[in-house]
Amino acid sequence: MYVCLCHGVSDKKIKKLALEQGITDIRGIKRCTALGSQCGKCVKQAKEILNETIVVQYQQAS
Fold first, then answer.
1. Tens of pLDDT, residues 8-55
2. Can you tell me the distance from the alpha carbon of 61 to that of 46, in angstroms, rounded to the nearest whole number?
3. Angle CA(18)–CA(50)–CA(56) in degrees, nearest 5?
4. Which tops the pLDDT comparison, 62 or 28?
5. Residues 6+ apart with CB under 8 A from 8
6. What's the longest Cα–Cα distance across the chain?
7. What local confidence, expressed as pLDDT, does residue 58 receive?
8. Structural domains present in the chain
9. Per-residue model confidence (pLDDT) at position 5
10. Using CA atoms, how far apart are residues 50 and 15, in angstroms rounded to an integer?
């Protein structure tokens, strides 16, 4: 699913960056993509996806 329609950033891309590169905050996602740099409507949903991914990763590690 596309999270950022302006720049074509998907939920899969956000999850991949979190899992493979260890990105844990929205600033890190913004450094790697153009997420939120145009209209900004995607940032809230991107944060939710990132947080969910981190929680699942933490639970699997426990």
1. 999 999 999 999 999 999 999 999 999 999 999 999 999 999 999 999
2. 23
3. 80
4. 28
5. 2
6. 38
7. 85
8. 2-61 (1.10.10.1100)
9. 96
10. 7
